[in-house]
What we know:
4-stranded mixed beta sheet; 32% helix
Amino acid sequence: MPLQGTVKISGAKNAGLPILISSLLSEHPLQVSNIPHLQDVTTALDLLARLGATIELDESMSVKVNAATVSNFCAIYEIVETMRASILVLGPLLSRFGQAKVSMPGGCSIGSRPIDLHIKGLKAMGAEIELIDGYILATSKRLHGAHIFLDTVSVTGTENLMMAATLARGTTVIENAAQEPEVVDLANCLIGMGAQIEGAGTSKIYIEGVDSFHEHSHRIIADRIEAGTYLVAGAVTGGAVRLNGIQPENLVSILNKLNEAGAAINVGKDWVELNMNGSRPKGVDVRTAPFPGFPTDMQAQFLMMNCIASGHGSVNETIFENRFQHVEELRRMGASIRMSGSTALVRGVESLKGACVTATDLRASACLALAGLVAESTTVIEKIHHIDRGYHCIEEKLSQLGANISRIHDHSHRIRAVA
Ligand code: UD1
C-alpha cells in the first residue's frame, strides 16, 4: 500500500552521542535538546552516569549533563560492547583529567572497525597510550596542539581528536577531517561552550585550545539517516510522504538518488516532500563515500529499493568491508542480488515474498522493515533490538503513514509487517 502522510524526524543519533559526551570536557552543565528516544542515547547517559556525571532528564527529552562531579575515568567493556561510540569518552576524559581507561571496541557485525587513528592522533598530542587486558590506558599531562593528518576519513576519529584539542595547549590542525553534518553540529556545540574551532564541515579543522568552558544549551540537528529511511519507505511503496523538522541541505546525495529513481522531490527550509505518484522506482547505482558522498548508513535501504525497482541497480560499499548481511535475508524474500567483491548487483523483481528474517545490524534491520512493507503476505523481523538503537518507534512512525506494521509484544524482539 502506498504510504501517505507526514513524519516528524527525530534528533540525530550520531550528533546526540558525541554532543552528550562532550559534556565531559566542562565543569559546567550542558543542556542538550531534541535528543532522540533511542537505546544508544540511554547507553550514553548510563555511561556518563557511571563516570560520575549528574544527569537530569525532562519529559521533552531535553537532557542536562553536569560533569563537574566526574570521578571515574573508565568505560567498561559491557558498555563499549553495546555501543562503539563509547570510544568518544577517550579524548574528553584524557584532555580534562589527564587519564582515561576505555575498553577496546573489538569487531562488530559490519567489519573490523579499528580505532588506530584516534590513538595515533592523541599520541601526537602528547598522550601516553598502552593496551592492557583489552583496555586502552591513556595518560598525559596537559595535551598539546599537533598537526594531525587522518589516513582515512573517520567520523568519530575526527570528533574524538577535535574534543581532545579544545582543552589542549596551543593549536591543533586536523587534516583529511570528516565533513559530516554531525561533526559540524558537535563543533557548533563546543564553540557555544567556549571552544575555538574553525573549519568544521571542511577537510581541515583548526582548534585553538582554551582553559575551560562555560554553561551552554544546544539543540541537535535532525537525523538525516532516519529522514532518508522514511523517504525510501515512501519510494518503495509508490507513496507520497512529507518529512518535517529536517535540514534538507544534509540530504542532497540521498535526494538526488531518489530523484534518479523517479521520485518527484520538493524541498523547503526545514521540510521535504517525496511523491512517487504510485509508480515503481527505477534501479539506481549507489557508491558509498564520506560526506558529502552517499552515506554508508543509507546503503541497505537503497539496496532494498533496487530489489523491487524496474531494471538493474548496484550498490558499491567503500567504507565498511562486511556491510552486506542484509543481502542473504533479502534473497530469502525473493530478491535477485549477485555479489561481486564489495558491490551488490541487483535485478529488480516485481514483488518480494514475506518471510521470517533476522536483523543483523541497525541499518540492515531498517531495510528489512522496508522490505516487509512491500512483500506479499507477512514478514516477521527477528532481533529488532538493533532497530531500537537508531530509530525512535519506527513501527509507530510507519503506521502513521498507513503501513501495517506492529511490534510483537512477547519479549521476543520481533516486528511484523504486512504489505
Ligand atoms: C560513524 C557513524 C556510523 C557511520 C560511519 C561512517 C557514529 C556514532 N557512527 O562511525 O553510523 O556508518 O561513521 O559514516 O557517528 N577507520 C580506521 N581507523 C580508525 C577509525 C576508522 O581505519 O581509527 C576506518 C573504518 O574502518 C572505516 C572508515 O575508517 O572503514 C570510516 O569509519 P568511521 O568514520 O570511523 O566510522 P565511525 O566513526 O565508527
